[in-house]
Specification:
- By secondary structure, this protein is α/β, with parallel strands linked by helices.
- It is 48% helix and 15% strand.
- The chain contains 9 helices and 7 strands.
- The protein has a 7-stranded parallel sheet with strand order 3-2-1-4-5-6-7, sandwiched between helices.
- α4 links the parallel β4 and β5.
- Belongs to the short-chain dehydrogenases/reductases (SDR) family.
- Keywords: NADP, Oxidoreductase.
- GO terms for molecular function: oxidoreductase activity.
- This is Beta-ketoacyl-ACP reductase.
Amino acid sequence: MRPKTCVVTGASKGIGRGIAERLGADGCDVVVNYRSSEAAAAETVDRVEAAGGSAIAVQADVTNLAEVEAMRDEAHESFGPVDVLVNNAGITQDVRFTEMSHEEWDTVLDVHLDGTFHCTQAFYDDLADAEEGRLVNISSIIGKEGNFGQANYATAKAGIFGFTRTLALELASTGSTANCVAPGFVLTSMVEELPDDIKETIRADTPLGRLGTVEEIADVVTFLASDRSSFITGEVIDVNGGKDL
């Protein structure tokens, strides 16, 4: 039986890197997508292979359908049809709504929503034809709660909820699933750079009293990517330390 082939977008660092590495530990073949961080993507490939998987790094801007389709072709050439797609690529451009430009609005929605659309469209036939295809979309607690200065990001992440549930319905007849993971505040480099008082406020507002780890998000994603999740579809899985309790 061949290893599962997995595509993880935005996998050069942070949560995407953690997901790719964890899939490698499960023996998967992993396509490490990146937009511009070639050296960091190469490091992710090394980590996947050290964990026990096989990997290649593939450059593609998820907002560009032609580049996404080229990534699909390279994935097919290297590993064959794709069984798992993890739509993780994302950016932030934070600014108060009254000062937000249309460009700042469009740029964030393009990556999160157009990027998710492009990648899912490119790999849809693979997922539908797989014995048990898996679509896992990464959203955020911000899509549920909103956040000051993040109208663009919150809107994009909320849109991923509806997209996931619709794809779950459309994939259901094929036996493949679509789910969404909505992390809370996780110790990535971006969060670690926040002022200490803000991090302490986040901890105090979280029932478990701490921030999450990349590994905790990756464990949930890889469970949803596995055969063990066969009867779970259309769900938004919150991994946020109980913030919505």
